[in-house]
Structures are given as C-alpha cells and as structure tokens.
Amino acid sequence: MPARTNCWNEPGGRKCRCGARGCLEAHAGGWAIVEQAEAAGFRLPDGPLRPGDVFAAARQGHPAACAVIQHAAEALGMGLASFCALYQPERIVLGGNVLGEGYDLLLPRASQRFRSMVQPWMASLALPLSSIAQTAGVLGGAALVLYHWEERLRR
Predict the structure, then answer these.
(1) 99-115 pLDDT per residue, tens
(2) Shortest CA distance to 71 belongs to which of 36, 38, 41?
(3) pTM for the predicted model, two decimal places
(4) Cα–Cα nearest to 71, from 7, 143, 133, 22
(5) Domain limits of the chain?
(6) Which of 30, 43, 78, 121 is the residue whose CA sits 20 to 30 A from 56?
(7) pLDDT band at 8 (very low <50, low <70, confident <90, very high)
C-alpha cells in the first residue's frame, strides 16, 4: 500500500501543504523537518537547509536538530499506529528519502511510540527500512511510464 502521509496525526497541528492541519507529512515530512529546524534557529552558513543536514546535526548532538527529529519520530510512531488501527496490516515496510536519511535516528523513538499505541498483537510488527528507500519514488515513476508504454504497444 502506498504512503499515507496526509492522514490526520495531531489535532490543531502544523499546517500541511495539502491544506489540512496536523497531517503526518506536516510533522515528519522532509519539508516540515527543514521548516521546524529553521524556526528553532538552526541554519547553515552556506546554502539552503535540507533534511539530511538536520539529521547530520542531530547525530552531532545539536539541541535544535535533536528536538526536531524527536518530534518527527513521535509523529511517525503515532501515524504508523493510526495506520495500523485502520488497516491492520500484516507487514509494514518503511521507505522514502526522509527515512532513508534518518532511519537510525527516527526508528527508536517512532518504534517506542508506535508500540505504546497499537493493539498488543500488532506491537510485534517489525518496522524495516526498504532496500530501495531512497529510490522508491524514481523506480515507481519509471514503472508507471513503462506500464503506460506497454499499454500503448498492445493497442
């Protein structure tokens, strides 16, 4: 099942790019991590901030970066728990650029929050990172192009 990042995650939370408030994306998406880090005063001396910069700073113990990443991890854990309550999956595989860059920092707190919120039988679900985490979007786009190309050849 594809990502469900525009699902409600926090009442009255941050405004999302989709127009709603409190979406998982607005708390744990790459753009949201950057916005929150900048709002906390974290800046780079030379160039625009990227999510990977915030993860790197958190690994070095920068307080603002650590706080932003902890918030994103909490949101991710709550989002995964909500997803499980709705869909009761047998397996979850995490992916995307943000998780590809920050899985080591996000997973411990996200996993803790997730396990504290789900039904007991779901608490044992593993939360592995996809082997194609950072290229999944590109591969999915390429697959879509090939699918449509193959459909045209069949006509």
Answers:
(1) 989 999 999 999 999 99
(2) 36
(3) 0.82
(4) 22
(5) 24-154
(6) 78
(7) low
